[in-house]
Amino acid sequence: MTQTNNFVRRIAIVGGGTAGWMMAAALSKTLSRHPCEVVLIESPDIPTVGVGEATIPPIQLFNRLLQIDEHEFLRETRGTYKLGIEFVDWFKQGQTYFHPFGRYGADIHNVPFHQYWRKLHQLGEGGSLGEYSLPTVAAYRGTFSPPDDNPRSVLSKMAYAYHLDAGLYADYLRRYAEARGVQRLARRVQGATVRPDDGFIESVVFDDNSRLEADFFIDCSGLRGLLIEETLHTGYEDWRHWLPCDRAVAMPCEAPEAPRPYTRSTAREAGWQWRIPLQHRLGNGYVYCSDYLTDDAAESTLLANLEGAPLADPKRLRFTTGRRKQAWNKNCLAVGLSAGFMEPLESTSIHMIQTAIARLMTLFPDNAFDPVDIAEYNRLSDIEYERIRDFLILHYKATARDDSELWRYTRDMAIPDSLQHKLDLYQSRARVFRYDEELFADTSWIAVFEGQGVVPRRYDPLVDTYDLEQLRAVAARMRQTIIAGADSLPRHEEYLARHCTA
Question: Which molecular-function annotation in GO is an example for this chain (predicted)?
Fold first, then answer.
């Protein structure tokens, strides 16, 4: 069977920032042996949003794809390591829990360890669940080292991600991509033309009315959606009834201490505040709902809770949580904020750019743009958005707070059936099941369920087949081993100074 060579000859990426340059870097690597020109167009006078400074562990896969050295990457982005997220005042004021990377304990007879912990917990024993997580214990001790190569060592269980300066990350990837042939045009795009016969995008139009034609267009223009929405009128699915925050104010400040190896999210009256430690500063921001708080009051709250002197003026952002009805429409693919907005509560923004790139590489088109491939891309994208949406909603729904209008609303709101099913399973016997290759693993769901007061009525009955005294001894050894392992690691700031100082 013969195949006509109908390869895409030019790809135009509209917009730079994290999304544009991640896509450009990945294409420059993947298409290095193909006769495809990649052009990235970014306006010299439109700033990027740049609030996504925390990541999750799969970013290591992206860096490996590009063959990026980890220490160089952290030096260039002034990054630090991240072992998880501390949540303050989410379930109720004065209560804190930690969402770690990695797993809790070790399975016993093929039953997840948290089931055994639930039995001990009901007996008033076993300590906190976080004591069985090496990343949790290391985070609070301020220690870090990459995982040990010996699979029998507890130190092999270390899981981590990064905090980074998103602007420096985009600059780093720009240099990477341009060195591999990506052409950058510093031009302002004012619109696009479409083919009259099928509605496909034909060219982008610059502010001097000159044009650039391409076969495939990738919209990284941010919340505006210059191509996917303004040109193709794809439509948007609004999720504010589940995730009502629609504003953010961001401001970096001086760091008062050595960087801690974790992100902090503190629930406030009308939303939540992030704290992200970099080598050279703290990233701070307040995500809030404009129905319950004015922009000026949000800015005042953020300023009042900074830990150091401000390093820049406040940056105000507006958004609508949700997604495009099609991330890929005709010959245009929306990536990053142009595809949808999921508030950065669980550091998914950069990851969703990464998964969009991975789906594109799996379903890379030719100039026929087969609707079957496009439909499959959109199906997978929709699943990802919905599963992440449900996980974010859980943080707002599972709360005992009734001290403000926002928390009373989210506590009482109706939730998607898919999330209700997850809640029902956990409340029954502390069981968690992953569906459709969803992002968040069992540990993530367990951390939020337990941290936000979702208490199971029972535990797995197989737990009772294990001798109680033996369980007590095994659990005690696990805790001691994890504490000793965390204490054996270097201080986080010492590891950075040795390998990654900017």
Answer: nucleotide binding
Our measurement of the distance from residue 159's CA atom to the centroid of its chain's CA atoms, rounded to an integer in Å, reads 15
Which residues make up each annotated binding site for 7-chloro-L-tryptophan?
Answer: 82
Q: What is the CATH number assigned to the segment(s) 10-79+164-237+322-386?
A: 3.50.50.60
Residue 325 falls in the annotated catalytic set: no
Residues making up the annotated binding site for FAD are 16-19, 189, 337, 350
User: Which pLDDT belongs to residue 4?
Assistant: 52
* pLDDT less than 70: residues of the chain: 1-4, 46-52
Question: Taking the CA atoms of the chain, what radius of gyration do you get in angstroms?
Answer: 24
What tokens were used for 148? 């040990």
Which tens digits make up the pLDDT trace of 410-436? 999 999 999 999 999 999 999 999 887
Domain ranges of the chain: 10-79+164-237+322-386, 104-159+388-493, 247-318
Query: Quick one: which of 438, 396, 386, 445 has its CA closest to 416?
Result: 386
Binding annotation:
16-19, 82, 189, 337, 346, 350
The H-assigned helical ranges of 363-402 are: 371-397
Q: Which of the following is catalytic: 82, 119, 157, 397?
A: 82
